[in-house]
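Dear U.,

For the methods section draft, I wanted the exact inputs and outputs in one place so we can describe them consistently. I've listed the two proteins in the order they'll appear in the manuscript figures. Please don't edit the token lines directly; just add comments below if something needs changing.

First protein:
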Amino acid sequence: MEASTWVDRFEELHALARTQSGLKDFGDTAYHEGLTALLAALDVDPPQGAGKIGSAQALIVNSLVARLHTQAQWAAHPEYRRRDIPAPLIVIGVPRTGTTALHNLLSQDPQFQGIEKWLTAAPLVRPPRSQWSDHPQYQACVALTQQMIAIAPDVMKAHGVMADEVDECLLPMSQDFTSNWFPSQMDVPDYDRWLLTADESYAFRRYKDMLRLVGLHDDRRWLLKNPSHVFGIDAMMAVFPDACIVQTHRHPAASLASLVNILANIMKAYTGEDIDRPARIARETAFWAEAVRRTMAAQDRQPHRFANVMQSDIRRDPMGVVHAIYHRFGLTLSTEAETAMQAWAKRNTLQPDSGHSYAAIEQQGPINDAFAAYISRYQL
């Protein structure tokens, strides 16, 4: 690196993003706080090895590039501001508890729109489906997905999302740099400590504007999903005050074992290096234990906003879960939607971890202790 510290590279990283995108406007400067916290954390715990250094830089620059593209789209389509996002249905839950399967199942209902994978890296006004295959951004996403299948088949087997399928909110929300996107892929304990007290409201407001942009010509109800919303639940509920929230559950020792294995495979694919598994387990335990504590408190305050779903029920009786969710929130399940969901469930028979294998966590005591109230509350 030319500069001596990551913090010193603040302007350099922005210059790299401008060069890659050909754009200049990053919008307001609220994101500087999170980015500076991240860079400072990288100075305290510098990534070791060329692979990890390159991966860290790419994560930061890609988020800056995405921010530039989003600002350009907003400038080109100022009418997005007149759109609203009424009563979105939002799936949340600790990772590996069935959020992706349930999200995909619900997305078969044509009354919903979601943010497709190819739009998450740089949101834009969603064109008609017939035009996607000709769009450079869609083609790039397809190519990247195929590359991931080749270099990290276990990751794609466990959590593979195709370019035209609905995806989660995590990547687009990284543009604000107040996000679990970064500590989930880098070892930055100081950033974790900063994130613990950070206000995610701005990140959610920015994301809401992204949804207004993507759905500019689409009046359907939004269906969203992101495990990290368990952590940011208070900000999410403030920005989406009428959201209908579905939370999935599974014993945390099983879900965290699966999560750490996936993160290890992702980091191996990106950096060529292994992770410190005990340190990663400790980090994920602390983060998600705090997350479920926050969401249990939110459920206590506004229980009518939530529906709770067990992962085992999603596997055992997916349509029963759907009917319970729709009844809870007064949604109408059309014959067309039910038929599509049944077909999807048949094609995607849900086994434990969808065929993904992982090593169990031998020392579950710290996890059980950290999640004791959560395990007891949901009888896990």
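Second protein (the one for the lower panel):
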Amino acid sequence: MKERIKQYAKKLNIEYTGIAPVCRYDDLEKRLYRRREKFGINQFEETDIEKRVNPLVTFPLANSIVVCIFPYYTGEDEGANVSRYARIPDYHTVIKYKLQQIADFIKLESNAKCECFADTGVLHDRYLAYLAGLGFFGVNNCLINEKYGSYFFIGYIVTELQLEPDRPQKKECLKCANCVKNCPGGALDGEGGFDTKRCVSYITQIKELTEEQVSILKEQEMIYGCDRCQEMCPHNTNPVKTPIKEFYEKRQSKLEKNELLVMSNKEFKQKYKDFPFSWRGKAVILKNFDK
């Protein structure tokens, strides 16, 4: 059944699928507490660590987690000020649709219940993908896949179907520290630690900024998101384009301040509703120009 699920996923242009175990992730717990003690927490993450490290807290009937990666690199855009992942149609919609197809296949074959998550669940998706053998962690805190580097999204299906888990890869990143040296906000500590509050991507998504965050934003051109730590990573040299056709359907690589100024928030949401950055609203995006 495990191989049949993977083969079905490939028919949906999902090349990499793995199975993560349902258990308590003690190693992840240690990582999360270390990061919290050193850097605190941010407004977007789940505060209850037990929910993040123990799937059975939220999904008491779960037996397996099917994890898929969705490459999103579609090429370069001159003068872009929007991160690569946000220039393309909203990944939440694309991923959820494909995951639901896999979930329907599982239900049809086994009658097992499933729940799908595309960057919307309480579990730590990168850690699940690591456990499922889909990549290894980089110093930049990203998960790195052997073919697509770190330019991919992660989605997962929690199911009551019992499947044999895959094994984590034993590979490691090159530890060149290019990401640490070139991070605009100095968010990376070089040991896998990550201060989200100094990350440009995080700063461009929050409403209120500290003086330090304003200073960080002034030093670069991005209006939404940041790709610097990925651009400098040798694992992303000559990135491979995604086979997922939905990510080529629309493109918005640059936002203009003058255009946003004359739009209402409703007009903004309507025009950009198909892109990942629209959820933050016009005001949050507009504040990133005023630096």
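Candidate sentences for the figure legend, describing the second protein: The chain has two domains: 2-159, 178-237+256-287. The two ends are 54 Å apart (CA to CA).

Thanks,
Y.
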